[in-house]
């Protein structure tokens, strides 16, 4: 039985969200479905005196609600601890009538002992909804296990029912999920990155390089710059010996915002020498000096993501300029997720969203193929030509056994939303397919429901944004080479990954690499075919126009050809109407196409990407890292195939070069007879075009091209014959 074809299209949804604000107050969670939570805020306790007196307990608090349990941190030897922690329980999962707040004493060698507890009836818990203020906490006297109030010992807390709009939600521990809730995470610092200059051409004691080397650095510039001059011992090997080095702090270096030249300075190189035969002591001796210009350039923007999916294009020195609008993202839920942990038969899903330098993560929903997050995030927008990226992952930290906290975070899928495709102040609620390309082929991992809204502060500023340069001005005043851009991108991606791995909560390297599309510039036959088809589609309009004109020229339809003659005569009689007619036609076509304009943001197109027609051999090559892990016959086969593709490209490039060189040879006298013929033609054409009216020349030329088929022969034209006989530089090539 044939396998049903998977549906990779996006679908418009109608989530239960309230997009209209009738209260007159600013709403902060209007793109997500409201979820009811019971919040428990534990502030502090007092008078927790043990049998041996005050400050003898190691107190902590347990919040027990049926099978759910939350625990605060504990304090050593403290009778008046302060926790100030918030816990939240999904109301729909509450299956008990009693909430217990238990204050316990943490012991080392024996089980912890209960100091006292407080009980609440769930039905008596009050409800608080914005814009109401948060419920004021109260002191509660602790009770023993029999319900008798203790003589001393109180705990201050508050309990209430609320939603995600509650201000406590952002700091609460959701007790039916693993807490990976993220706030803003920003880029990293200068890492241990090494760049090497080319060898000096002057083989003497005064070498010169005149070479720019660029690193990615970030405030507060704690990492110094180390310059080392080395003598390469063997031209064919990497072995070298240090001639001297200097460590340069970056905090006081010149910070450039424009193309002003940095001042050059001499730096003393120091060389470590080994003193004595025992090689136990080292002393630093003066070696030489090096002249260098060092500056911190803030006028560039370093792309840590693929250029086509950039989310921030501002220069690093202008991060505080006002934005043109606000982007709000609501991550609602996912459905039909695949089982990611096959041994445990579970999926612990969470989402990561990135726009600009701000990364956010949702909480992890445990053991659910239909997780509900209903979390909302907001960004300032500075450029509409940017992309919001949302990724869904399986939390590998939650694996059992030896892999606990060390597991690989598997990708479930990714969604990209280009802001320029969004209408202002409109809420887009869609279910996006989560599609992953694997070595075995493309696979749908589920669907995620998102709500997105872009609000512009000023329509005029938004329109002016289209007239501004895409990149900062330094990219045009002092352009970077392709090699520099590629090197800086890899540095920035590495530093971002390193920084986020140390953040709280940490993001694994595989998560950051997937969000930044690291490795997207690797060779792929599938992508090459897709880009080839894209070029053909772009050229299809021109080819269709040429084909239409050829049909007019050969009089395939007498009516169409006569109509073209009439329009041509009108244009020849009224040449001033040509451009207005062209622009009016474009205007009318645009207006008519607005009726069928796209109503939803674009998404991954499996047909365009050729993922549904590729084979496992091509995918295996695409996923093979650099350097390759393959050996033997596999590499030979791929190399031969690549040579075949490159050979065909080489022929096409050679043909293009040949045609261009033939045109150049018209005046090169490489073929003297052909040059004489061309010069005679130019002299006669000069006289004819000077004497004859311009409109007459146009009329005769077009009439000749459109002459009736009975007046033409089926051979190439004189011009084609002449050009094909001209010489090219192919005669000089091996």
Automatic annotation (TrEMBL):
It comes from the Eukaryota. The chain crosses the membrane at residues 566-592, 676-706. Residues 10-22 have a biased composition (Polar residues). GO terms for cellular component: membrane. The keyword NADP does not apply. Pfam families: C2 (PF00168), PRT_C (PF08372). Keywords: Calcium, Membrane, Repeat, Transmembrane, Transmembrane helix. Residues 11-140, 309-432 form the C2 domain. It is a multi-pass membrane protein. It is found in: Membrane. Residues 1-22 are annotated as: Disordered. Belongs to the MCTP family. PANTHER family: FT-INTERACTING PROTEIN 3-RELATED, PHOSPHORIBOSYLANTHRANILATE TRANSFERASE ISOFORM 1. This is C2 domain-containing protein. It comes from Fagus sylvatica.
């Amino acid at each position: 039985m044939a396998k049903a074809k998977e549906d990779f299209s996006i679908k418009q949804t109608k989530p239960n969200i309230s997009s209209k604000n009738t209260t007159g107050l600013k709403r902060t969670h209007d793109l997500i479905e409201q979820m009811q939570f019971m919040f428990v805020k534990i502030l502090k306790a007092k008078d927790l005196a043990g049998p041996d007196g005050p400050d003898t307990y190691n107190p902590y608090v347990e919040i027990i609600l049926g099978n759910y349990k939350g625990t605060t941190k504990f304090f050593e030897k403290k009778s008046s601890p302060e926790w100030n922690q918030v816990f939240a329980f999904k109301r729909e999962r509450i299956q008990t009538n009693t909430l217990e707040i238990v204050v316990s004493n943490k012991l080392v060698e024996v089980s912890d002992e209960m100091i006292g507890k407080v009980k609440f009836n769930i039905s008596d818990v009050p409800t608080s909804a914005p814009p109401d203020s948060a419920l004021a906490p109260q002191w509660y006297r602790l009770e023993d296990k029999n319900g008798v109030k203790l003589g001393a010992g109180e705990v201050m807390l508050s309990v209430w029912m609320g939603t995600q709009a509650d201000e406590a939600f952002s700091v609460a521990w959701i007790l039916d999920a693993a807490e990976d809730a993220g706030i803003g995470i920003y880029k990293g610092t200068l890492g241990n990155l090494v760049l090497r200059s080319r060898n000096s051409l002057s083989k003497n004691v005064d070498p010169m390089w005149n070479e720019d080397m660029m690193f990615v650095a970030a405030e507060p510039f704690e990492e110094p710059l180390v310059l080392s001059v080395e003598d390469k011992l063997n031209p064919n090997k990497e072995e070298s010996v240090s001639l001297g080095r200097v460590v340069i702090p970056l905090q006081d270096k010149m910070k450039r915002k424009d193309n002003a030249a940095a001042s050059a300075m001499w730096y003393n190189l120091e060389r470590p020498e080994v003193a004595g035969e025992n090689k136990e002591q080292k002393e630093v001796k003066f070696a030489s000096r090096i002249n260098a210009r060092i500056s911190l350039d803030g006028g560039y923007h370093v792309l840590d993501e693929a250029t086509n999916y950039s989310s921030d294009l501002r220069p690093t020195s202008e991060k505080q300029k006002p934005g043109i609008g606000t982007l709000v993202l609501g991550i609602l839920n996912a459905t039909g997720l695949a089982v990611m942990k096959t041994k445990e038969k579970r999926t612990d899903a969470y989402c990561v969203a990135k726009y600009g330098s701000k990364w956010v993560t949702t909480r992890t929903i445990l053991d659910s193929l239909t997780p509900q997050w209903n979390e909302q995030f907001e960004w300032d927008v500075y450029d509409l030509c940017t992309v919001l990226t949302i990724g869904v992952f399986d939390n590998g930290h939650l694996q059992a056994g030896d892999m606990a906290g060390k597991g690989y975070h598997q990708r479930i899928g990714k969604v990209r939303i280009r802001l320029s495709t969004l209408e202002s102040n409109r809420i887009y609620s869609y279910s996006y397919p989560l599609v992953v390309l694997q070595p075995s082929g493309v696979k749908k991992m589920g669907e995620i429901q998102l709500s997105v809204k872009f609000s512009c502060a000023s329509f005029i500023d938004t329109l002016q944004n289209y007239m501004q340069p895409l990149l900062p001005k330094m990219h045009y005043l002092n352009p970077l080479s392709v090699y520099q851009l590629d090197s800086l991108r890899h540095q920035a991606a590495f530093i971002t990954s390193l920084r986020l791995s140390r953040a709280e909560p940490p993001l694994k390297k595989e998560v950051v690499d997937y969000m930044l599309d690291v490795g997207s510039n690797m060779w792929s036959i599938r992508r090459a075919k897709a880009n080839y088809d894209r070029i053909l589609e772009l050229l299809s309009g021109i080819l269709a126009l040429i084909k239409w004109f050829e049909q007019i020229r050969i009089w395939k339809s007498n009516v169409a050809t006569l109509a073209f003659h009439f329009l041509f005569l009108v244009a020849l009689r009224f040449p001033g109407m040509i451009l207005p007619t062209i622009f009016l036609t474009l205007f009318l076509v645009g207006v008519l196409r607005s009726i069928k304009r796209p109503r939803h943001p674009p998404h991954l197109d499996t047909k365009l990407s050729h993922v549904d027609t590729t084979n496992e051999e091509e995918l295996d090559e695409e996923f093979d890292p650099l350097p390759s892990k393959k050996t033997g016959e596999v590499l030979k086969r791929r190399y031969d195939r690549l040579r075949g593709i490159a050979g065909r490209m080489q022929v096409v490039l050679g043909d293009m070069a040949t045609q261009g060189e033939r045109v150049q040879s018209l005046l090169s006298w490489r073929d003297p007879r052909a040059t004489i013929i061309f010069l005679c033609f130019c002299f006669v054409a000069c006289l004819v075009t000077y004497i004859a009216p311009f409109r007459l020349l146009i009329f005769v030329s077009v009439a000749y091209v459109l002459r009736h088929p009975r007046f033409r022969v089926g051979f190439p034209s004189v011009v084609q014959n002449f050009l094909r006989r001209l010489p090219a530089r192919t005669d000089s090539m091996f």
